[in-house]
From TrEMBL:
InterPro entries found in the cross-reference section: Cyt_P450, Cyt_P450_CS, Cyt_P450_E_grp-I, Cyt_P450_sf
CDD domains: CYP503A1-like
Protein name as annotated: Predicted protein
Keyword terms: Heme, Iron, Metal-binding, Monooxygenase, Oxidoreductase
Domain of life: Eukaryota
Native species: Laccaria bicolor (strain S238N-H82 / ATCC MYA-4686) (Bicoloured deceiver)
SUPFAM superfamilies in the cross-refs: Cytochrome P450
Amino acid sequence: MDPSELSWKQWLFLTLTLYFIYKWFLKRHPLDHIPTIGYSSHLFSFFSAIRWIWAGKEIVLEGYAKYPDRAFKVPLLESWLVIVNGPKLVDDMRRASEEYISFTRSISGFFQFDYTFGPQVSRDPYHIHILRSQLARNVEPCFEDIKEEMVLAFDKAVPLPSQGEEWVTLPAYDTSLEIVSKISARFFVGLPLCENEEYRLLCVHATMEIVKSRILNFLPVFLRPLGGRIFTDIHGTVERTKRLMAPLVEERLKQERLHGRDWPGKPNDLLSWLLDGHPRPEERTVHDLDVRTLLVTFASIHTTSQAFTHALYDLATKPEYIQPMREEIEALIENQGWTKNTVTKMYKVDSFLRESQRFDGMAVVSLGRKVLKDFTLSDGTCIPAGSSLSANSWSVHHDEAHYANAHVFDGFRFVREGGLKQPLMAIPTLDYMAFGHGRPTCPGRFFAVTELKSMLAHVILNYDVRLENGGPRPANMFIESSVVPDRNGRVMFRRRKAAAA
Ligand code: HEM
């Protein structure tokens, strides 16, 4: 046929066909040298990307079995994810600088912060630097507040008659979330704002809205600003929390103007650390402080609530751990009272929680990073700039080579005599990545561990727990890389006879 006889529609069809043949079958992909779990071709990888939504665990286990000590890739709906296996390559990631692989850019891309909170939060994540310098060192001075808030929160969330052996049945996740969000609010914004129920619920709501913003990844870039307003309520939540936070910020700024930076009665909380550590004091606006607080809240409350839900399920289904932990806690409190130091020494409780995170944890991968400059692993594999990179945490956490009887929950597997050289929950290793690893390792982990240990000790001392219907442990849900404890699972609480605290 003479090409000049083709209509414009035929030309368009031909051009598009050639384009897709080139794109899907001929064009070399910069990750072609990395083996794939699932389909590699552009066309069929779509089906593997769909499978990733519910079969992340099976996919990472397959990648671990086929390519131990190497990297493999899996297709996601919007891109590819490179996953490394084995301690050597995890160590490469751990050592790498932010100039090459960035957690901040990974998380802000995953949840598209640019279109919800604005680009400033990832361009200048000063709140992370402040957390790193202030949070861990302030857990001890703030411990009395944390403990007080925890006891109040349990009393409210687990409503039991003051006497008697009546059981109450409660949703494990929602109960954990209520308690954790109250403790976090006390630590982050202090009294009286932390007692404002509207504020607390908005913080919980904000974290759910941030999760929803993942959907923006599937929109063309020009539609994302609009999508950020249509598909999430983040802008509205920021406005509402700002209204509640404004008087607090204004009062603190006023006190500072009147009495200087260390004014009498100044609260020791996240808001004060942000005000003090702001890199540009003249930009300490309610909006900026509110956004940073919401981001820290996001990093903090669902992670900790999920960890506690897992631990509650483990406790309720493995009652044989209760008595030894009770004895440990009671002996410590009797000798030293209930202090931060006492909580640190609860080594059985620490081991139980570390095991709970090893066994279930937050995700099947950890150390999520965006590759900013071509990054070469020690086995010579080059991960090109622009790629998404993670470490296969689920598989190593369940590998017999790293954990004897890895498929059995062994609550005291990490306990060492007197706690000496005990692998502690907050300390990452190349085969324990619940809090990530390397420079971006979770800056909230020392607070999270103190909070979780205190909460678990409080439950063990004050309640008997069991699962509703005495059933099996509620099953996790796997969504993309996330491991989500059953949100509908219910736990029964009864006041323990002769409660100690
Ligand atoms: C059990 C509870 C928690 C778990 C399992 C957890 C887990 C993690 C993980 C896996 C990371 C990524 C680290 C990496 O990739 O190397 C991370 C980062 C982070 N976490 Fe946590 N976290 C928890 C609690 C908290 C709490 C309570 C806070 C705040 C008080 C917090 C604040 C953060 C922040 C701000 C980052 C980002 C660090 C950065 O950008 O460099 N987390 N967390």
